[in-house]
Protein backbone atom coordinates (compact mmCIF):
# COMPACT_ATOMS: atom_id res chain seq x y z
CA UNK A 1 0.00 0.00 0.00
CA UNK A 2 1.42 3.38 -0.98
CA UNK A 3 2.13 5.89 1.71
CA UNK A 4 1.37 9.49 0.89
CA UNK A 5 4.23 11.76 1.81
CA UNK A 6 1.90 14.72 2.16
CA UNK A 7 -0.34 13.03 4.67
CA UNK A 8 2.60 12.46 7.01
CA UNK A 9 4.42 15.72 6.57
CA UNK A 10 2.64 18.39 4.53
CA UNK A 11 -0.74 18.33 6.24
CA UNK A 12 0.91 18.30 9.63
CA UNK A 13 2.72 21.56 8.90
CA UNK A 14 -0.18 23.02 6.92
CA UNK A 15 -2.69 22.55 9.72
CA UNK A 16 -0.27 23.92 12.33
CA UNK A 17 0.27 26.99 10.19
CA UNK A 18 -3.46 27.63 9.83
CA UNK A 19 -3.88 27.54 13.61
CA UNK A 20 -1.00 29.96 13.99
CA UNK A 21 -3.31 32.07 16.07
CA UNK A 22 -2.57 31.89 19.78
CA UNK A 23 -2.72 29.78 22.87
CA UNK A 24 -1.87 29.64 26.43
CA UNK A 25 -1.09 28.11 29.64
CA UNK A 26 -1.31 28.24 33.36
CA UNK A 27 -0.44 25.03 35.13
CA UNK A 28 2.99 23.93 36.21
CA UNK A 29 4.36 27.33 37.26
CA UNK A 30 7.22 27.16 39.72
CA UNK A 31 6.14 28.16 43.21
CA UNK A 32 9.61 29.17 44.39
CA UNK A 33 9.98 32.04 41.90
CA UNK A 34 8.73 35.17 43.62
CA UNK A 35 11.05 37.88 42.29
CA UNK A 36 9.37 40.68 40.37
CA UNK A 37 12.07 40.49 37.69
CA UNK A 38 13.44 37.50 35.80
CA UNK A 39 16.16 35.52 37.56
CA UNK A 40 19.76 36.25 36.55
CA UNK A 41 21.09 33.90 33.90
CA UNK A 42 22.90 30.92 35.50
CA UNK A 43 26.63 30.53 34.95
CA UNK A 44 26.77 28.89 31.52
CA UNK A 45 30.18 27.41 32.30
CA UNK A 46 28.47 25.14 34.83
CA UNK A 47 25.98 23.81 32.30
CA UNK A 48 26.68 20.31 31.01
CA UNK A 49 25.92 19.94 27.31
CA UNK A 50 24.01 16.76 26.52
CA UNK A 51 23.35 17.05 22.78
CA UNK A 52 25.25 18.33 19.76
CA UNK A 53 23.83 19.48 16.43
CA UNK A 54 24.98 16.38 14.55
CA UNK A 55 24.05 13.83 17.21
CA UNK A 56 21.99 10.95 15.87
CA UNK A 57 20.97 10.18 12.31
CA UNK A 58 17.92 10.43 10.10
CA UNK A 59 15.10 8.25 11.36
CA UNK A 60 12.43 7.31 8.87
CA UNK A 61 9.91 6.08 11.42
CA UNK A 62 9.42 8.51 14.29
CA UNK A 63 6.01 7.35 15.47
CA UNK A 64 6.82 5.08 18.39
CA UNK A 65 4.10 2.99 20.00
CA UNK A 66 6.15 2.38 23.14
CA UNK A 67 4.50 3.44 26.41
CA UNK A 68 5.18 7.01 27.46
CA UNK A 69 7.07 7.73 30.65
CA UNK A 70 4.72 9.34 33.14
CA UNK A 71 5.80 12.12 35.49
CA UNK A 72 5.43 9.86 38.55
CA UNK A 73 7.70 7.26 36.96
CA UNK A 74 10.30 9.94 36.20
CA UNK A 75 10.23 11.17 39.79
CA UNK A 76 10.76 7.60 41.03
CA UNK A 77 13.82 7.40 38.77
CA UNK A 78 15.17 10.60 40.30
CA UNK A 79 14.80 12.68 37.13
CA UNK A 80 14.53 16.45 37.15
CA UNK A 81 11.16 17.64 35.82
CA UNK A 82 11.30 20.28 33.07
CA UNK A 83 8.04 22.08 32.34
CA UNK A 84 7.12 22.76 28.72
CA UNK A 85 4.03 24.65 27.57
CA UNK A 86 2.67 24.49 24.04
CA UNK A 87 -0.56 24.60 22.10
CA UNK A 88 -2.88 21.64 22.00
CA UNK A 89 -2.78 19.66 18.80
CA UNK A 90 -2.60 15.92 19.26
CA UNK A 91 -0.66 14.97 16.14
CA UNK A 92 2.03 17.66 16.36
CA UNK A 93 5.49 16.18 16.06
CA UNK A 94 6.49 17.53 19.47
CA UNK A 95 4.26 14.93 21.15
CA UNK A 96 6.34 12.11 19.69
CA UNK A 97 9.60 13.93 20.21
CA UNK A 98 8.92 14.62 23.89
CA UNK A 99 7.94 10.99 24.48
CA UNK A 100 11.18 9.74 22.93
CA UNK A 101 13.28 12.29 24.82
CA UNK A 102 11.76 11.12 28.09
CA UNK A 103 12.44 7.47 27.25
CA UNK A 104 16.02 8.20 26.17
CA UNK A 105 17.31 10.81 28.66
CA UNK A 106 18.30 9.45 32.10
CA UNK A 107 18.39 12.83 33.87
CA UNK A 108 15.45 14.90 32.68
CA UNK A 109 11.76 14.44 32.06
CA UNK A 110 9.82 16.92 29.95
CA UNK A 111 6.38 17.50 31.41
CA UNK A 112 4.50 18.89 28.44
CA UNK A 113 1.29 20.80 29.07
CA UNK A 114 -0.85 21.46 26.01
CA UNK A 115 -3.55 24.08 26.04
CA UNK A 116 -6.48 23.76 23.65
CA UNK A 117 -7.08 26.36 20.97
CA UNK A 118 -10.38 27.56 22.39
CA UNK A 119 -12.07 30.74 23.58
CA UNK A 120 -9.82 30.83 26.64
CA UNK A 121 -6.74 30.92 24.46
CA UNK A 122 -5.97 34.65 24.76
CA UNK A 123 -6.73 34.70 28.48
CA UNK A 124 -4.21 31.93 29.08
CA UNK A 125 -1.60 33.77 27.00
CA UNK A 126 -2.12 36.92 29.03
CA UNK A 127 -1.79 35.09 32.35
CA UNK A 128 1.33 33.39 31.08
CA UNK A 129 2.87 36.74 30.12
CA UNK A 130 2.23 37.95 33.66
CA UNK A 131 3.80 34.82 35.16
CA UNK A 132 6.91 35.07 33.01
CA UNK A 133 7.29 38.79 33.72
CA UNK A 134 7.44 38.02 37.45
CA UNK A 135 10.08 35.30 37.15
CA UNK A 136 7.61 32.41 37.12
CA UNK A 137 6.20 30.28 34.33
CA UNK A 138 7.41 27.10 32.60
CA UNK A 139 11.01 26.36 31.68
CA UNK A 140 10.39 26.05 27.94
CA UNK A 141 7.58 27.42 25.75
CA UNK A 142 6.60 27.26 22.10
CA UNK A 143 5.74 30.38 20.16
CA UNK A 144 2.05 29.56 19.78
CA UNK A 145 1.47 29.81 23.49
CA UNK A 146 3.90 32.64 24.14
CA UNK A 147 3.93 35.14 21.26
CA UNK A 148 7.09 37.20 21.47
CA UNK A 149 7.34 40.94 20.88
CA UNK A 150 10.33 43.25 20.77
CA UNK A 151 9.39 44.46 24.25
CA UNK A 152 9.39 40.95 25.72
CA UNK A 153 12.92 40.45 24.41
CA UNK A 154 14.05 43.90 25.58
CA UNK A 155 12.63 43.28 29.06
CA UNK A 156 14.82 40.20 29.45
CA UNK A 157 12.11 37.58 29.90
CA UNK A 158 13.71 35.13 27.46
CA UNK A 159 17.11 33.48 27.56
CA UNK A 160 19.72 34.38 24.96
CA UNK A 161 20.61 30.89 23.70
CA UNK A 162 23.58 31.95 21.55
CA UNK A 163 26.28 30.88 24.08
CA UNK A 164 24.65 27.48 24.56
CA UNK A 165 24.21 27.07 20.81
CA UNK A 166 27.96 27.52 20.37
CA UNK A 167 28.56 24.80 22.98
CA UNK A 168 26.21 22.43 21.12
CA UNK A 169 27.73 23.34 17.74
CA UNK A 170 24.39 24.68 16.53
CA UNK A 171 25.83 27.04 13.93
CA UNK A 172 24.73 28.88 10.79
CA UNK A 173 26.62 26.57 8.44
CA UNK A 174 24.60 23.58 9.64
CA UNK A 175 21.11 25.09 9.43
CA UNK A 176 18.89 27.05 7.10
CA UNK A 177 18.54 30.70 8.20
CA UNK A 178 15.00 29.98 9.45
CA UNK A 179 16.41 28.17 12.49
CA UNK A 180 17.14 31.46 14.25
CA UNK A 181 13.58 32.71 14.52
CA UNK A 182 13.93 35.42 17.17
CA UNK A 183 17.12 37.44 17.16
CA UNK A 184 18.47 40.79 18.25
CA UNK A 185 21.98 41.72 17.18
CA UNK A 186 24.03 38.56 17.93
CA UNK A 187 21.56 37.23 20.48
CA UNK A 188 19.18 34.35 19.76
CA UNK A 189 15.94 33.96 21.70
CA UNK A 190 13.98 31.47 19.60
CA UNK A 191 15.01 28.33 17.72
CA UNK A 192 12.82 26.95 14.95
CA UNK A 193 12.99 23.18 14.34
CA UNK A 194 10.50 22.93 11.45
CA UNK A 195 10.20 25.74 8.92
CA UNK A 196 7.75 27.04 6.38
CA UNK A 197 8.69 29.32 3.50
CA UNK A 198 6.33 30.91 0.99
CA UNK A 199 6.87 32.71 -2.29
CA UNK A 200 4.65 35.12 -4.14
CA UNK A 201 4.19 34.94 -7.91
CA UNK A 202 2.40 37.33 -10.24
CA UNK A 203 0.67 36.78 -13.58
CA UNK A 204 3.16 37.36 -16.41
CA UNK A 205 0.60 39.61 -18.11
CA UNK A 206 1.22 42.16 -15.36
CA UNK A 207 4.99 42.02 -15.83
CA UNK A 208 5.45 40.90 -19.45
CA UNK A 209 9.20 41.66 -19.47
CA UNK A 210 9.59 39.51 -16.31
CA UNK A 211 11.74 42.18 -14.68
CA UNK A 212 11.06 42.73 -10.98
CA UNK A 213 10.17 46.40 -10.37
CA UNK A 214 10.90 48.28 -7.18
CA UNK A 215 7.98 48.50 -4.77
CA UNK A 216 6.64 51.89 -5.81
CA UNK A 217 6.86 50.97 -9.49
CA UNK A 218 4.88 47.80 -8.78
CA UNK A 219 2.21 49.82 -6.98
CA UNK A 220 1.98 52.16 -9.98
CA UNK A 221 1.65 49.21 -12.37
CA UNK A 222 -1.10 47.65 -10.25
CA UNK A 223 -3.02 50.92 -9.98
CA UNK A 224 -3.16 51.16 -13.77
CA UNK A 225 -3.76 47.44 -14.39
CA UNK A 226 -7.16 46.00 -15.32
CA UNK A 227 -9.91 46.69 -12.81
CA UNK A 228 -11.42 43.28 -13.53
CA UNK A 229 -8.96 41.49 -11.26
CA UNK A 230 -8.43 40.75 -7.57
CA UNK A 231 -5.14 40.59 -5.70
CA UNK A 232 -4.79 37.13 -4.15
CA UNK A 233 -8.28 35.78 -3.40
CA UNK A 234 -11.83 36.83 -2.54
CA UNK A 235 -11.14 36.48 1.18
CA UNK A 236 -8.37 39.04 1.27
CA UNK A 237 -9.52 42.30 2.81
CA UNK A 238 -7.72 45.58 2.22
CA UNK A 239 -5.55 45.40 5.32
CA UNK A 240 -4.14 42.03 4.25
CA UNK A 241 -3.38 43.34 0.80
CA UNK A 242 -1.59 46.28 2.45
CA UNK A 243 0.50 43.90 4.48
CA UNK A 244 2.17 42.54 1.35
CA UNK A 245 3.54 46.00 0.57
CA UNK A 246 4.60 46.92 4.11
CA UNK A 247 5.61 43.79 6.02
CA UNK A 248 9.22 43.48 4.82
CA UNK A 249 10.59 46.93 5.63
CA UNK A 250 12.30 47.85 8.91
CA UNK A 251 11.26 51.50 8.59
CA UNK A 252 8.16 51.12 6.39
CA UNK A 253 9.98 52.49 3.38
CA UNK A 254 11.27 55.56 5.19
CA UNK A 255 8.01 56.46 6.91
CA UNK A 256 9.55 55.71 10.33
CA UNK A 257 12.68 57.46 11.60
CA UNK A 258 13.75 55.20 14.45
CA UNK A 259 16.70 57.36 15.47
CA UNK A 260 14.66 60.53 15.93
CA UNK A 261 11.47 58.65 16.85
CA UNK A 262 9.34 60.41 14.25
CA UNK A 263 7.03 59.27 11.47
CA UNK A 264 5.63 60.63 8.22
CA UNK A 265 2.64 58.97 6.58
CA UNK A 266 1.97 61.84 4.20
CA UNK A 267 4.17 60.20 1.57
CA UNK A 268 2.91 59.56 -1.93
CA UNK A 269 3.88 55.89 -1.61
CA UNK A 270 1.68 55.33 1.46
CA UNK A 271 -1.25 57.06 -0.25
CA UNK A 272 -0.86 54.83 -3.29
CA UNK A 273 -0.59 51.69 -1.13
CA UNK A 274 -3.92 52.58 0.45
CA UNK A 275 -5.45 53.14 -3.00
CA UNK A 276 -4.17 49.93 -4.59
CA UNK A 277 -5.28 47.91 -1.56
CA UNK A 278 -8.76 49.43 -1.72
CA UNK A 279 -8.96 48.84 -5.48
CA UNK A 280 -8.42 45.09 -5.16
CA UNK A 281 -10.45 44.77 -1.96
CA UNK A 282 -13.44 46.39 -3.70
CA UNK A 283 -13.17 43.87 -6.53
CA UNK A 284 -13.74 40.84 -4.31
CA UNK A 285 -16.65 38.49 -4.87
CA UNK A 286 -17.24 39.57 -8.46
CA UNK A 287 -15.82 36.46 -10.10
CA UNK A 288 -12.55 38.13 -11.09
CA UNK A 289 -9.31 36.19 -11.44
CA UNK A 290 -6.39 36.93 -9.09
CA UNK A 291 -3.11 38.33 -10.39
CA UNK A 292 -1.04 37.13 -7.40
CA UNK A 293 -0.57 33.62 -6.11
CA UNK A 294 0.98 32.32 -2.91
CA UNK A 295 3.42 29.50 -3.60
CA UNK A 296 3.74 27.25 -0.56
CA UNK A 297 7.12 25.56 -0.80
CA UNK A 298 6.22 22.32 0.93
CA UNK A 299 8.06 19.26 -0.30
CA UNK A 300 5.78 17.42 -2.68
CA UNK A 301 3.69 20.50 -3.38
CA UNK A 302 6.23 23.02 -4.71
CA UNK A 303 6.94 22.14 -8.38
CA UNK A 304 10.07 24.24 -8.81
CA UNK A 305 10.58 27.59 -10.50
CA UNK A 306 10.79 26.22 -14.04
CA UNK A 307 7.32 24.71 -13.83
CA UNK A 308 5.90 27.91 -12.37
CA UNK A 309 7.40 29.95 -15.20
CA UNK A 310 5.82 27.60 -17.74
CA UNK A 311 2.49 28.24 -16.01
CA UNK A 312 2.93 31.95 -16.73
CA UNK A 313 4.09 33.02 -13.31
CA UNK A 314 6.79 35.58 -12.52
CA UNK A 315 8.44 34.98 -9.14
CA UNK A 316 8.02 38.28 -7.36
CA UNK A 317 8.50 37.01 -3.80
CA UNK A 318 8.31 39.57 -0.96
CA UNK A 319 9.75 43.08 -0.75
CA UNK A 320 12.43 43.60 1.90
CA UNK A 321 14.67 46.64 2.37
CA UNK A 322 17.56 44.97 0.54
CA UNK A 323 15.63 43.18 -2.20
CA UNK A 324 13.03 40.51 -2.93
CA UNK A 325 13.12 37.19 -1.05
CA UNK A 326 10.93 34.23 -0.12
CA UNK A 327 9.35 34.76 3.30
CA UNK A 328 9.65 32.53 6.34
CA UNK A 329 6.35 32.23 8.17
CA UNK A 330 6.79 32.23 11.96
CA UNK A 331 6.52 28.64 13.16
CA UNK A 332 4.25 27.79 16.08
CA UNK A 333 6.87 25.19 17.00
CA UNK A 334 9.61 27.78 17.66
CA UNK A 335 11.04 27.15 21.14
CA UNK A 336 12.04 29.74 23.73
CA UNK A 337 13.54 29.34 27.20
CA UNK A 338 12.23 31.30 30.15
CA UNK A 339 15.09 33.40 31.55
CA UNK A 340 13.64 32.72 34.98
CA UNK A 341 14.14 28.97 34.71
CA UNK A 342 15.83 27.19 37.58
CA UNK A 343 16.39 24.16 35.32
CA UNK A 344 18.52 25.64 32.55
CA UNK A 345 20.58 22.51 31.94
CA UNK A 346 17.46 20.39 31.42
CA UNK A 347 15.72 23.07 29.39
CA UNK A 348 18.70 23.33 27.04
CA UNK A 349 19.03 19.54 26.91
CA UNK A 350 15.52 19.40 25.48
CA UNK A 351 15.90 22.30 23.04
CA UNK A 352 19.26 21.02 21.78
CA UNK A 353 17.75 17.53 21.40
CA UNK A 354 14.99 19.02 19.25
CA UNK A 355 17.61 20.74 17.08
CA UNK A 356 19.87 17.70 16.78
CA UNK A 357 19.68 15.25 13.88
CA UNK A 358 17.67 12.90 16.05
CA UNK A 359 15.10 15.54 16.93
CA UNK A 360 15.01 16.98 13.43
CA UNK A 361 13.91 13.62 12.06
CA UNK A 362 10.46 14.35 13.47
CA UNK A 363 10.07 17.57 11.49
CA UNK A 364 8.12 17.93 8.26
CA UNK A 365 10.67 20.46 6.95
CA UNK A 366 13.74 20.32 9.21
CA UNK A 367 15.99 23.35 9.53
CA UNK A 368 19.11 21.14 9.83
CA UNK A 369 20.44 21.18 6.25
CA UNK A 370 22.07 17.77 6.24
CA UNK A 371 19.02 16.16 7.80
CA UNK A 372 16.78 17.94 5.29
CA UNK A 373 18.82 16.49 2.40
CA UNK A 374 18.85 13.00 3.92
CA UNK A 375 15.10 13.14 4.45
CA UNK A 376 14.43 14.21 0.88
CA UNK A 377 16.83 11.73 -0.68
CA UNK A 378 14.93 9.04 1.18
CA UNK A 379 11.73 10.42 -0.31
CA UNK A 380 13.23 10.28 -3.82
CA UNK A 381 14.10 6.61 -3.25
CA UNK A 382 10.56 5.88 -2.12
CA UNK A 383 9.16 7.65 -5.18
CA UNK A 384 11.40 5.59 -7.47
CA UNK A 385 10.28 2.43 -5.68
CA UNK A 386 6.64 3.38 -6.07
CA UNK A 387 5.95 3.34 -2.32
CA UNK A 388 5.34 7.10 -1.99
CA UNK A 389 3.64 9.76 -4.02
CA UNK A 390 3.51 13.55 -4.16
CA UNK A 391 1.07 16.07 -5.59
CA UNK A 392 3.65 17.34 -8.11
CA UNK A 393 6.61 15.65 -9.75
CA UNK A 394 9.44 15.67 -7.25
CA UNK A 395 12.95 15.23 -8.63
CA UNK A 396 16.55 15.89 -7.64
CA UNK A 397 16.34 19.16 -9.57
CA UNK A 398 13.23 20.28 -7.67
CA UNK A 399 14.95 19.33 -4.41
CA UNK A 400 17.94 21.53 -5.26
CA UNK A 401 15.56 24.33 -6.23
CA UNK A 402 13.80 23.94 -2.88
CA UNK A 403 17.11 24.09 -1.02
CA UNK A 404 17.91 27.41 -2.72
CA UNK A 405 14.49 28.77 -1.76
CA UNK A 406 14.92 27.77 1.89
CA UNK A 407 18.41 29.28 1.90
CA UNK A 408 17.09 32.58 0.54
CA UNK A 409 14.15 32.99 2.92
CA UNK A 410 13.80 35.83 5.42
CA UNK A 411 11.60 36.59 8.40
CA UNK A 412 9.72 39.86 8.31
CA UNK A 413 11.02 42.40 10.84
CA UNK A 414 9.29 42.43 14.20
CA UNK A 415 10.10 46.02 15.22
CA UNK A 416 7.19 47.36 13.15
CA UNK A 417 4.48 45.04 14.48
CA UNK A 418 2.80 47.53 16.83
CA UNK A 419 2.89 50.24 14.18
CA UNK A 420 1.44 47.94 11.53
CA UNK A 421 -1.36 47.00 13.90
CA UNK A 422 -2.28 50.68 14.19
CA UNK A 423 -2.12 51.16 10.43
CA UNK A 424 -4.36 48.18 9.72
CA UNK A 425 -6.80 49.03 12.48
CA UNK A 426 -7.33 52.57 11.19
CA UNK A 427 -7.16 51.77 7.46
CA UNK A 428 -10.24 49.59 7.74
CA UNK A 429 -12.40 52.71 7.88
CA UNK A 430 -11.05 53.86 4.51
CA UNK A 431 -11.61 50.48 2.88
CA UNK A 432 -15.17 50.35 4.19
CA UNK A 433 -15.90 53.92 3.03
CA UNK A 434 -16.61 55.18 6.55
CA UNK A 435 -13.74 57.67 6.45
CA UNK A 436 -11.81 59.52 3.77
CA UNK A 437 -8.18 58.71 2.99
CA UNK A 438 -6.77 62.00 4.32
CA UNK A 439 -8.59 61.60 7.61
CA UNK A 440 -7.34 58.05 8.05
CA UNK A 441 -3.75 59.07 7.26
CA UNK A 442 -4.02 61.90 9.82
CA UNK A 443 -5.25 59.49 12.51
CA UNK A 444 -2.48 56.99 11.72
CA UNK A 445 0.12 59.77 11.87
CA UNK A 446 -1.03 60.90 15.31
CA UNK A 447 -1.36 57.42 16.81
CA UNK A 448 1.98 56.17 15.55
CA UNK A 449 3.74 59.34 16.73
CA UNK A 450 2.25 58.88 20.20
CA UNK A 451 3.56 55.32 20.20
CA UNK A 452 7.04 56.45 19.13
CA UNK A 453 7.03 59.10 21.86
CA UNK A 454 6.65 56.31 24.42
CA UNK A 455 9.68 54.38 23.16
Q: How can the largest sheet be summarized?
A: 4 strands, mixed
Secondary structure: helix percent: 25-40%
| Structural class determined from secondary elements | alpha/beta
Task: Write down the Rg.
Answer: 23 Å
What proportion of the residues form beta strands (DSSP E)?
A: 5-15%
Low-confidence stretches: 1-39
Could you give the order of strands across the largest sheet?
Answer: 3-2-4-17
Mean pLDDT: 89
The total strand number stands at 18
The number of helical elements comes to 16
End-to-end Cα distance, whole Å, is 60 Å
Shape: globular
Describe the structure using short key phrases.
455 residues, disordered N terminus, four-stranded mixed beta sheet, alpha/beta, four-stranded antiparallel beta sheet, 16 helices
Amino acid sequence: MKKTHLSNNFYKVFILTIILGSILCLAGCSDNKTDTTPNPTPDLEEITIHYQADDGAFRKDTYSTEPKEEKEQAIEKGKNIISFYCGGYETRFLNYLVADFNRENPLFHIEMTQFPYDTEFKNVQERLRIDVSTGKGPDVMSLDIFPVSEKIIADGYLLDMAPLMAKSNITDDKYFPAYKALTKDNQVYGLCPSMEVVRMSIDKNVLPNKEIPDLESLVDILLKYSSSTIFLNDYQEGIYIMDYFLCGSQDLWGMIDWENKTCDFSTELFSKILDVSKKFADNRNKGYAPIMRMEHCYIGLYPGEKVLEKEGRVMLDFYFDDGNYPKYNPSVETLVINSGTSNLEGAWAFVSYVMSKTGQSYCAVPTHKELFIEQNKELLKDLDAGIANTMVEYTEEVMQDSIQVYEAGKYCPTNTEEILNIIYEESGAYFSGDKGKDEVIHIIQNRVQLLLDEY
